[in-house]
Amino acid sequence: MSGIGASRVREILSKTVGPAPWYWKTFPAFRSLAGQPFAWTHHGDHGPIAHLVTLGLQQEPDKARLALNTYCRPFLVPPHFIGIWCPEGRNIRFTCFDPDQLKAFDLAEVAGWFKASSDRIYAATAPLADFEVLVALEPGMHKIELPAEFGSVDELIIPTSYKAMSNDDPAFALFVFYPQAGLVEVLPQKWFTSAQYRVGQQWITRAARDPESHRIVGECFGVGTFQLEEDGCRLADWVERRG
Question: 99 φ, ψ to 5°?
């Protein structure tokens, strides 16, 4: 199968959410069921709330309703909810909020929280739903139990670190979630090993599926953008190489 063109890969990845705070501009703006427009705000690189990313009403950006620590990524939960996924120890955590129910809080409440806390998500309102999945799952397809609130999500491709037993074992994996079907497929990235890459300094930041070829494309920080073989585990080609 012929490769995906570089311009198409750039287009796909430009719409793919990356981790907070570095990729906050990729976070989805949306309207709630009540018709209220919500938007994300990054609070700069200096001061007590440096690097914090918050969600608020578009017309009230200083009234935070949700705050995200490092590595969090929001996703839309049709028709009107917002989901967040993030690493949580050796798990991947998923939460779902009704934006119309989110209560505003003073940014002073989260001053210093970004650096001091291991918590990833701060809100004054409890989520509608919350669940976790172990990152130690074996390669292949797995049945999972998840709250009904997530059932409208079609597919989520989640890059995560993966326990490597040797320098030649995959140090990263893609967890492809199919919430509608209650399934997750674990795709170890067989090309991304400690023998080949500087794990920790170089890492897979985001990945997405090309709707035409169904191949997965992604971005590796410090290396470039890539496309995978049809099995989703092997590197097919570097679309753009950096460094």
Answer: -60, -30
Distance CA 178, CA 182 (A): 6
The CB-based long-range contact list for 208-217 (8 Å cut-off, 24+ gap) reads 208/12, 208/13, 208/15, 208/16, 208/157, 209/155, 209/157, 210/4, 210/8, 210/9, 210/12, 213/1, 213/4, 215/1, 215/4, 216/157, 216/174, 216/187, 217/4, 217/9, 217/12, 217/13
Average pLDDT (195-216) is 94
Residue 37 is predicted with a pLDDT of 97
For every residue of 26-69, which 3-state class applies, written as one string?
A: HCCCEECCCCCEEEEEECCCCCCCCCCEEEEECCCCCCECEEEC
Query: Is the per-residue pLDDT at 1 higher than 60?
Result: no
How many Å apart are CA 145 and CA 147, to the nearest integer? Answer: 7
- The residue with tokens 């907070």 is 20
Taken in order 185, 171, 69, 221, is the CA torsion positive or negative? negative
**Cα distance between residue 41 and residue 125, in whole Å:** 19
What integer best gives the mean pLDDT of the chain?
93
User: What is the SS3 assignment for 125-164?
Assistant: CCCCEEEEEECCCCCEEEECCCCHHHCCCCCEEEEEECCC
